[in-house]
Design brief:
Helix content is about 25%, strand content about 25%. It is of the alpha+beta class.
Length: about 500
């Protein structure tokens, strides 16, 4: 049952009206004239485009979530590669050969060819900065008849997973003009991007020449609404059909039948400095771990809309819990009034609250605790330099490949680029190296969990909770995706009754 608009606080509803009125009307018919029935889908998204919807930036995830740009492969729930624009692939040393799907056309009417794929991948590999998925990867592509051969400088078992990243979407040649990339009318998905109004809105129409299942909805109207209260009010008042990232503070006052909590591959973790200071002592790290009551943080700070952590990898990776075994750790010692400084940042609103809760918990256990809270841009360098005894971070545990091995390496390897814990443990390094080199599938998952266990055994990091993202779907919406990786939102099956 929808909450009557008159019950919405005036300021919230007014904000939503100012931001959304007119966005979902005009220029496009609200109903489908093709005879298939259904209405256009009105979507309120959190972040506006930052790079003109270039697929070589984080804007690529918007193109993916609108089902307009596609990649050679996609990922299943376990992170394994599945066919998309490529139907099969084979590895030979450093090279992978991809067979392209027949009968695919871009939205501008040109055909998907090996040359078109090579063009997109080459543009991505040569971009400055490179798409995140290609950091540290030297990748080249060449056409071989109707196949594409992708070669890396060193053997890489993750090439298919890398090519699933929305930042490596395949677009028509017309999209690449000089240094900019314009995705309008250049994708291959069930919806064609037809119009972009800067950072305010975008429109997409069903593409009837799609190679796969025809979209049920005639189109999508998108509005970018950074204000969380306004997004929630848009769902409540019927101004939007699908709403991204409903704030926790607003979720409780919405009709619970209209919201879905999706586990994210993101863990709120307390990193402990193993190189210097009190937490150089493994027994004091154990004392900190035992002092933390994550359940009270989930209930108090997150209003119950998060999951207490059992490890570094959470429910967004369901296989992790199935493979995980008990971890042996050091015994705790008495903190005896040792003073520690915990750092965190204000950019994620919940983190200062988490810091305050931890301060009380650790003080109760016998530590003296100081807090240092700043904007992330002003604190990251100090955190990476080991200037804090502990640091609270909300960390994505799978990067664009859908694989957690890269995150584990960057955060906990001796030469990891994001080693806030300053950890240098030969056993951990060995486990991380094995995980990174193991072939994909069950063997790699087992190696990843073994690496996680090695990290947890040091107490260099204490995982506290796994975050969720709250998505709003209006009562008439059917088939909207609820994707932990935030790659899918409106699919060919999504429609409004």
């Amino acid at each position: 049952m929808r909450v009557p608009a008159r019950l919405v606080p005036f300021t919230a509803l007014t904000a939503a009206s100012l931001l959304l009125t007119g966005c979902f009307s005009g220029g496009q018919s609200a109903t489908d004239d093709s005879g298939a029935g259904g209405e256009r889908i009105r979507v309120a998204m959190m972040q506006p485009p930052r790079s003109g919807l270039s697929p070589l930036s984080d804007d690529a995830f918007k193109l993916s979530r609108w089902s307009t740009a596609e990649t050679l492969v996609k990922l299943d729930a376990d992170g394994d590669a599945e066919p998309a624009l490529a139907t099969e692939w084979a590895r030979s040393g450093r090279s992978w050969t991809f067979t392209l799907r027949d009968g695919v056309t871009f939205h501008d009417g040109t055909k998907l060819t090996a040359e078109a794929v090579v063009n997109s991948l080459t543009k991505a590999a040569a971009a400055s900065p490179k798409p995140r998925i290609l950091d540290g990867v030297d990748l080249t592509a060449k056409a071989d008849g109707d196949k594409v051969i992708v070669t890396t400088a060193t053997e890489d078992p993750l090439v298919p997973q890398r090519l699933s990243s929305p930042q490596l979407s395949i677009l028509a040649a017309k999209a690449y003009r000089g240094k900019s990339v314009d995705p309008v009318g250049a994708g291959t998905g069930p919806f064609e991007l037809t119009k972009v109004n800067g950072t305010s809105s975008a429109a997409l129409d069903r593409y009837d020449g799609y190679w796969g299942k025809k979209a049920k909805a005639p189109g999508i109207d998108v509005r970018f609404v950074p204000d969380g209260t306004a997004r929630a009010a848009a769902l409540r008042s019927g101004e939007a059909d699908i709403v991204e990232a409903v704030p926790v503070s607003q979720a409780a006052v919405l009709d619970q039948d209209l919201i879905t909590e999706v586990p994210m591959p993101r863990t709120n973790t307390l990193y402990l400095n193993t190189e210097k200071g009190p937490f150089r002592d493994a027994a004091l790290r154990a004392a900190a771990r035992e002092a933390i009551d994550a359940e009270s943080i989930v209930k108090g700070v997150y209003e119950g809309r998060a999951d207490v952590a059992e490890g570094l990898l959470g429910p967004a990776l369901p296989w992790a819990a199935e493979l995980r075994e008990p971890v042996r750790r050091a015994k705790a010692s008495d903190p005896a009034g040792r003073t520690i400084t915990i750092g965190t940042f204000t950019d994620r609103a919940e983190l200062p609250e988490v810091a305050a809760a931890l301060q009380q918990q650790l003080q109760k256990a016998g530590f003296k605790v100081k807090l240092d809270v700043r904007e992330y841009a002003n604190i990251e360098s100090d955190a990476l330099a080991g200037e804090f005894d502990a640091f609270i971070l909300s960390r994505a545990t799978v990067l664009d490949s859908g694989d957690p091995a890269a995150y584990l390496y960057s955060d906990f390897a001796s030469d990891g680029s994001f080693n806030i814990s300053q950890l240098a443990d030969p056993a951990v390094d060995k486990a991380l190296k094995k995980a990174g080199e193991t072939s994909t599938g069950d063997p790699r998952r087992a190696a990843v969990i073994a690496a996680e266990a090695a990290v947890l055994g040091t107490d260099a990091a204490v995982p506290m909770l796994h975050e969720r993202v709250i998505q709003g779907d209006a009562a008439g919406v059917t088939g909207a995706a609820h994707d932990p990786r935030e790659r899918e939102l409106v699919t060919a099956d999504t429609h409004v009754k």
